Amino acid sequence: MNSIGESCNELKQQYDVCFQTWFSDKFLKGDMNDSMCAPLFKIYQSCLKKAIKDNKIEIKDIEVNHLGTDNEKLPPS
Q: How many CB atoms lie within 10 A of CB 19?
């Protein structure tokens, strides 16, 4: 799956590879230290924040929980 911002796709792929490696090689073997991918995540997160701003997406709209509410059944506006 691509990132919300096209310019973030390569960063997302790098983070995804790091996360998959951490998850399979460390987490599933009991190592809960997730700092391995933290630097990549910070860079990717920064890119995402810029893409969200550039696309005029309101964070509050993303954070609204619709599952299990009457809003879940409404078509997108």
A: 16
DSSP string, the chain: ---SSGGGHHHHHHHHHHHHHHHHHTGGGT----GGGHHHHHHHHHHHHHHHHHTT--HHHHH---TTSGGGGSPP-
Residues 77/29, Cβ–Cβ less than 8 Å: no
- The C-alpha atoms of residue 42 and residue 60 are separated, in whole angstroms, by 21
**pTM for the full predicted model:** 0.72
Tens digit of each residue's pLDDT (9 = 90 or more) over 9-44:
999 999 999 999 999 999 999 999 999 999 999 999
Instruction: Name residue, tokens 């810029």.
Output: 50
